[in-house]
């Protein structure tokens, strides 16, 4: 039914929760910011780093948010790849899609080089045709920019594309891009949350991706 399968990364293809929490905690502790729970941090996964900090510390001070982001990235360069694991369903699903002749892409607010590092660790870079990360777009999701760039790259129309993500932000991005969307409940967005957005399917795991 679809020729192009696009995926979010964090909480969709991979569990990087431990690394993300470590990096946020490093920055928050550096600035003696307390009373922010792990659950609050987890709910920001899918936002840009600046927007994540904006939500957590309730500040619109751009200089301060930029500094938080820079310090997060430095820490992430040290620890993120080592604390990121692909879900057990991810590699079999990607292989299944490639064997069926489909094209596969990743559209994420995570930096592309970090996603590439994880794929290299698992030796599955060849299973992904395109990665569009935060550095590749001017506007992050829910902007449709990343999905539309992928459509242009693959020379595909919207009816050929399925976008799969774990967050309401992904659902909004799919809606804004005019492509089919399938939600997966491996993140913090629930099945009930997804029902508020256009979708073809709400899944418990990537085992349910058909191709």
TrEMBL record:
UniProt keyword Hydrolase, yes or no: yes
SUPFAM superfamilies in the cross-refs: HAD-like
One Gene Ontology CC term in the entry: cytosol
GO molecular function: phosphoglycolate phosphatase activity
GO biological process terms, semicolon-separated: DNA repair
Keyword annotations: Hydrolase
Recorded superkingdom: Bacteria
Protein name: HAD-IA family hydrolase
């Amino acid at each position: 039914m679809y020729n192009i399968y696009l995926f979010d990364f964090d909480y969709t293809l991979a569990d990087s929760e431990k690394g993300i929490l470590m990096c946020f905690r490093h920055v928050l502790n550096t600035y003696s910011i307390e009373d922010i729970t792990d659950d609050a941090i987890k709910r920001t996964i899918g936002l840009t780093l600046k927007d994540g900090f904006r939500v957590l510390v309730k500040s619109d001070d751009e200089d301060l948010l930029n500094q938080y982001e820079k310090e997060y990235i430095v820490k992430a360069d040290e620890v993120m790849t080592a604390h990121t694991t692909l879900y057990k369903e991810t590699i079999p699903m990607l292989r299944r899609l490639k064997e069926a002749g489909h094209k596969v892409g990743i559209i994420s607010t995570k930096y592309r080089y970090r996603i590439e590092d994880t794929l290299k660790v698992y030796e599955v870079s060849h299973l992904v045709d395109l990665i569009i990360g935060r550095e590749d777009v001017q506007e992050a999701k829910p902007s449709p920019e990343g999905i539309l760039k992928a459509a242009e790259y693959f020379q595909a129309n919207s009816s050929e594309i399925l976008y799969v993500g774990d967050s309401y932000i992904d659902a909004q991005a799919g809606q804004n891009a005019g492509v089919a969307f399938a939600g997966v409940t491996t993140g913090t967005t629930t099945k009930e949350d997804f029902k508020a957005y256009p979708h073809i399917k709400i899944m418990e795991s990537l085992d349910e991706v058909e191709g």
